[in-house]
Amino acid sequence: MHDSTFKLTLRYLVSILIVGIFVFPIAWWGLTSVKPISAVFDKDRIVVFDFEPTLENYRVTVLGYSKRGSKEDGKTLMGTSGNNSYDGRSSIVSSVIVAVGSTLITTIIALLASFGLSRMQFWGSQGYLNWILSQRFLPPVAIIVPLVFIFHDMGLRDTHTGLIIAHTLINIPIAVLLLKSFMDDIPIDIDQAAMIDGATRFQCFWMVILPMVKGGLAATAVLCFIFSWTEFLLSLFLTNSIRTIPVKITTYVTSTGSEWGYISALGTSAILPSFIFILLVQRHLVRGLTMGAIKD
Amino acid sequence: MSGWLRSCVSGTLGVRTVKAGWGVSTTKFIEENMTMGSVTIQNLVKRYGSLEVLHGIDLAVEDGKFVVLLGPSGCGKSTLLRMIAGLETVTSGDIAIGEQRVNDMHPKDRNIAMVFQNYALYAHMSVRENMAFSMRLRKTAQAEVNKRVNWAASILSLEPYLDRFPKELSGGQRQRVAMGRAIVRNPEVFLFDEPLSNLDAKLRVQTRKEIKELHQRLKTTTVYVTHDQIEAMTMADQVVIMRDGVIEQIGTPLEIYDNPYNLFVAQFIGSPGMNLLTGEIVQGASGKMFQTGEVTCEVPQDSKAAVGQKVLYGIRPEHLQASMQGSGLSATVTVVEPTGPEIHLYATLAGHEICAIAHQRLDWKPNDELKLNPMIEHVHLFDAETKVALPTV
Ligand SMILES: Nc1ncnc2c1ncn2[C@@H]1O[C@H](COP(=O)(O)OP(=O)(O)OP(=O)(O)O)[C@@H](O)[C@H]1O
Ligand SMILES: [Mg+2]
Question: Which of A92, B40, B83, B356 is deepest in the core (most CB within 10 A)?
Answer without folding.
Answer: B356
